[in-house]
Amino acid sequence: MKYRVPDIIDNYRKLCVYCDSIWNRAKEAYPNEIACRKGCGICCELQSVNQIEAYAIRSYIVNNKNLFEDRCIDNDNMNVDTDDTNIDTNDNTDACPFLHQQSCTIYPARPIICRTHGLILRSSEFPLSKQAASCPYNFPSVHPDDFPPELAADADVITKNLVNLNLAFCMASGIDAKDGAESAESRVRLRDLANAPTSNFRNKTL
Ligand code: SF4
User: Fold this and answer.
1) Domain-by-domain residue ranges, the chain?
2) 99 alpha carbon – ligand 1 mean position (Å)
3) By the 8 A CB rule, do 139 and 120 touch?
């Protein structure tokens, strides 16, 4: 069977929509239990992505160059007033290169893991877990055992689909992933994407 890149990307986008739909349902069911909002980048420490996600981010940047012109990703505006949660985001030297003034500059194209951060997760390896979800501020009054499983993100399903899509993408694109499509060598640094000529980013921190 021959894989076609547009079809694979279409399926990747469906996976993004699936993750977003879990978020939307969780927010609807627990409107007062979620601290995530624009201006909080506390979980934004991603440093690399696999090839299909790098492609999705590159495409977004190329298609939205006007949004990025003259924007400087500097990660130096970390002193944000996070009054209602007292989140201290100062001195986050591990911040994602796409985080600017505590907001994601590629939000519509953010990777899958960014779409599940803060959700309650479930997996065959662990029961419903808040700890695995990266955000200590979400669902403060909810015990994971009481959380409806259908509102939790199934980490196994999401990861398996992403891995398969990335493998198909690498094969269809002729990307030689010698050590496997998910190996460290095959991953793309977000810093490199942010500094690519097409992005027009100027990164003061480099
Ligand atoms: S890509 Fe966006 S949402 Fe993901 S870690 Fe970076 S700034 Fe945060």
Assistant:
1) 5-195
2) 6
3) yes
